[in-house]
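Run log, item B.
One chain of 377 residues. Sequence copied directly from the ordering sheet:
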Amino acid sequence: MKKNRITFTEIRDFLNEKGLILIKKKKNNSFKNSNLYNLSRTFLSSIIIIFIFFISPIFIDFKNEKYSNFKEFENNSKNVFKNTLENKDLKKLSKLDEELIEKYIFEDIFEINDLPNDYVRLSASTIEQLFKDTNYNLEDVRKTKLVKPISLSLLPQEMKKIENTKARKKLFIQIILPLVIKENNNIRLDRRKLFSIINKSNNSNVEKKWLKRKFKQYGVPNNDLSTLKVRMDEIPVSIAIAQAAKETGWGTSRFAQEGNALFGQWTWSGDGIKPTAAEDNTTHKVMRFKILQASVKAYHRNINTHSSYREFRNARAELRDENRELDSLVLSMYLDKYAETGKEYVKILQQIIKQNKLTDFDDAKLLPSSVGLGSLI
């Protein structure tokens, strides 16, 4: 059965007969034009803007972390001299990578290697006599904390022939100690200049050029001053000597003798020494240097730029922030990636430091150079 439905028209007609007028109410849009509506829109827009500014740093940090490897001079283990200058590798590099290749990071070191090879190798007996004549001995250094500025360019060939282990270690430390302190001094001066530039509101063109060069040397292509500050720092003397001793067998290795390679850094370029035990299909070599000082400089640059030693640099920065001394036994724990043996390598380093009391030299200072002692060949 069909139901009767009353329409709106019938209701209106009925009321009209009774003298009443029914008007259909139109939708009220007054709110849209009201002050409350405008205020609501402004509030909502503000919330959206604040939200965007809030999440932007999160996305930026995520991006930086995701692509952080590109900001480091990448390599496997300690092979920081990986040659990326070959055409087949260069094609794969991004613009950012190109600024991190050894052409820039080690440019000043390559310039040393390009110098004429006219250095004279002194015998062990001659060096020992030189140290004696200049009153340079390690016991005095431990007491006075003063080191003679004797800069030898080459190790004596007789290092392996010195049968007395104690005498060989003593001679090796005496040769390496001034070189490490000298490089730390250079970094300290650069660091002081960096802080001076940071504290200025305006910098000169000379300072800007200097900063640009340092950004390249330390693999900081995005011109981040905070990153440069963390990387441009010293390495404790005791750590450097311990690693040189471990890598060269206290100056007796073929790499140290033939190529002044104190820290066993690898290269894929043609200028290097092929390891005897290396497999035929391996292409890496141990980087050779014209002088010992170049090897020390390359070692510092390696630790201060390579991604494997990021934790080392962060730990060093924390010690700086806390106004504490650079503790070699603490920092050495972050060098486990320097060798394939990892933590075992760290134990050996710490053992070398402790047994030879190398921390005695961490606060040693280099005496001013003189004509007679400044640089010996």
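Observations after the first pass:
- Residues 60-100, 371-377 have pLDDT under 50 and may be disordered.
- The chain has two domains: 8-66, 98-366.
Flagged for discussion on Thursday.
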